[in-house]
Amino acid sequence: MCGIIARVGDGDALGEILGGLRNLEYRGYDSAGVALRTEDGIDVYKREGETDALVDAIGDRTPDGTVGIGHTRWSTHGAPSDANAHPHTDDEGRVAVVHNGIIKNHESLRRELRADGHTFTSETDTEVVPHLVSRELAAGADPETAFRRAVDRIEGSYALAMVVADEDAVYATRSGSPLVLGLGSAANYLASDVPAFLEFTDRVVYVEDDEVVVLDGAGYRISDPDGETVERAPETVEWTAGDAQKGVYNHFMRKEIDEQPVCLRQTVDGRLDVEGRADGGEGGGGTPVLDALPPGELSGIANVVFVACGTSYHAAMYGCVLLKRLGIPATAMPANEFAHDPMPVGDETLVVAVTQSGETADTLASLRAADASPARTLAVTNVVGSTAARMADDAVFIRAGPEIGVAATKTFSSQVATLAMLAERLADDGAGVGATTPGGAAVSEAAGWSASLASLPDLVETVVEDGGAARLAEAYADAEAYFFIGRGTGYPVALEGALKFKEITYEHAEGFAAGELKHGPLALVTPATVVVAVFTGRNDDVTLHNVREAQSRGAPVLGVGPASSTAARDAVDEYLEVPDADPELVGVLANVHLQLLAYHAAAIRDRAIDKPRNLAKSVTVE
Ligand code: M6R
User: Fold this and answer.
1) How much distance in Å is there from the Cα of 434 to the middle of ligand 1?
2) For the chain, is the Cβ count within 10 Å smaller at the N or the C terminus?
3) pLDDT under 70 in the chain at which residues?
4) Which top CATH class is 252-464?
5) 615 lines ligand 1 (CB under 6 A)
6) Which residues are catalytic?
7) For residue 576, how far is its CA from the centre of ligand 1 (angstroms)?
8) Where are the domains of the chain?
9) Which stretches within 245-308 are classed as H helix?
10) DSSP assigned state of 208
């Protein structure tokens, strides 16, 4: 994790770097720091805590400088502290470095450098880098050569940016951690993610692993490990600066919950052929159109393995249920499990990495494992130019716009909608042909979800506007624990509801397959625990058995489900309704209520909703 930024150009570097750090705080907020090239050399300011603490520490000292680097940290090596905050420097303070990632061989390098007389002031893995560079500089190397030689010595994952005294330049590289170049009119930028500089430019160049970038007064130069110049045309990102700002909202999470109708419209825009199913129109053949996967492209696929983490894993589980409905064998694995203990895959397997950021280390490790197999790979991601998008054989973008709140909300909805379209594409290509359900029937035919997906944004809008979750968050604020249950597509939604709740309220919350409650968790159910039951309109009668099991132990039950499910409504203590819809998509609507429930419960407890403790949005370490 961690966010890095670098800036070279005309005008004030400090203000732009601090602004960039605020926009990168979703990547970590244990400490923040900047290093500026000034007339006297390099000025470093760093502080434990968020960027605001750094701003306070800088106070009235507003150092001039047009060149600088900045960092916001999610701790891996060494506790959050001023000393462990980046940038890190060499003994003389003439080299300053910021780093996102992990340097695996830092201990042996530290021993080697200590033996050479270098002293260390932090517990971080990063600190070896400025010392390696300074040793090369002392030996007579120019800054770029010194930087390259230092990078040659380190093992692990990294995006690094460096400033040296006496040079109005920034040197940067990456391996396994993201780094994107932003080309502005008055300055150029390097950062872990586009929102860091989106206020100044939307023209970007994605840096590839092992490339070295030099920003200086002349502009920028990208070169390969041999020093050969790399020419790569800039791209324009579709995100706007406003997308990455809170606007009138108190929290990004709330803004992003409210944005879901708009995001879902973007997700499905131009991809659905609502009319064409019956007559099989050209191009989409009546099925969703996914540019990366034209009709016929997936015809050889017999089974699908999803790999993902956290909320994306829950979206993947949801996608799995959808595929199974269409008779396509599918399974979802936590990405870190697949990476180190993969299930057997073959050339008829499609491995689908679902990842908002496209940078989650566990998910990338899974993609690497899949790459080493005959399986075909696909990334379903929000970030164009992300590592996952570039690593996988193909990429489909969920088009949700930047998500800044650490708690994923709008991207879950857009992921599920994208996976529903993918499921239909697979079914229409005949994927999974020959598979049968346990009942014996071959079911591989498309489900016609296009019309339902087209109306999903409007339906989500009605849930976003419903105030029911706020009332229930207040009414049940004193519970000792919160258990979420569901079946079918309601099961991943229950898991997601529990994840969201625990993540931002810090309360004990767990999700279960509804039928599993009686196999152990029921021992925890008391009148002081709240059970939240997700109904989808499919097999709700069975879920109602599980509801009664909880109620007979005295637990209050909150139901979330379709307006017309009177049996569910009558059985539970409170009911949050969603508009009637295709049962397979009701889960997306129910999930919005659960997002709001978590949000309001966290607000009541005055939690750091956008930056929950110990977490970061983009987990770029395994
Ligand atoms: O960027 P990714 O979708 O790969 O991130 C995976 C998880 O870290 C992420 O979904 C996490 O669980 C959420 N931020 C939780 O709300």
Assistant:
1) 35
2) C
3) 274-286, 433-447
4) alpha beta
5) no
6) 2, 617
7) 26
8) 3-244, 252-464, 468-604
9) 252-258, 260-268
10) P
Superfamily (CATH) of domain 3-244 = Aminohydrolase, N-terminal nucleophile (Ntn) domain (3.60.20.10)
Q: How many CB atoms lie within 10 A of CB 394?
A: 18
Listed in sequence order, the residues at least 6 apart from 413 whose beta carbon sits closer than 8 Å to its beta carbon are: 260, 263, 264, 267, 400, 460, 588, 591, 592
Token pair recorded at residue 615: 């977490």
pLDDT at 548 (0 to 100): 97
Is 310's C-beta closer than 6 angstroms to any atom of ligand 1? yes
Residue-level pLDDT at 221: 98
Contact 587, 493 (CB under 8 A): yes
252-464 and 468-604 agree in CATH topology: yes
Strand locations in 321-429 (E)? 330-334, 349-355, 376-381, 394-397
> Alpha-carbon distance 10 to 99, whole Å?
24
State the residue for tokens 């009942």. Answer: 439
Among 406, 427, 361, residue whose Cα is nearest residue 104: 361
**Which residues are paired to 575 by β-bridges?**
559
Residue of 48, 43, 39, 81 lying closest to 61 (CA atoms): 43
pLDDT at 286: 59
Inter-axis angle of helices 310-325 and 490-505, to 10 degrees?
A: 170
CATH of domain 468-604: 3.40.50.10490
Q: What is the pLDDT of residue 360?
A: 94
Helix (H) or strand (E) holding 170: strand 170-175
pLDDT given for residue 197 in this prediction: 96
pLDDT of residue 447: 63
Helix (H) or strand (E) holding 485: strand 481-486
217-221 long-range contacts (CB < 8 A, ≥24 apart) are 217/8, 217/168, 217/169, 219/188, 220/181, 220/183, 220/188
The pLDDT value given to residue 283: 38
Tokens of 324: 């199974």
Atom of ligand 1 nearest to the CA of 619: 8
pLDDT at res. 441: 46
pLDDT (0 to 100) of residue 282: 43
- Tell how strand 557-562 and strand 574-578 pair up: parallel
Which residue, among 452, 401, 458, has the nearest Cα to 423 in the 3D structure? 452
Q: At what angle do helices 583-604 and 450-464 cross, to 10 degrees?
A: 20
User: Alpha-carbon distance 127 to 119, whole Å?
Assistant: 10
355 lines ligand 1 (CB under 6 A): yes
Beta bridge partners of 70: 5, 34
What local confidence, expressed as pLDDT, does residue 485 receive? 98
Which pLDDT score is estimated for 432?
A: 78
Q: Is the CB of 357 under 6 A from ligand 1?
A: yes
CA distances to 317, 363, 379, 464, 552 from 306, in Å: 8, 10, 10, 29, 37
User: To 10 degrees, what angle do helices 410-428 and 450-464 make?
Assistant: 170
Residues in the chain, overall count: 622
Residue nearest to atom 4 of ligand 1 (CA): 355
Distance, CA of 591 to CA of 460 (rounded, Å) = 10
pTM score over 0.90: no
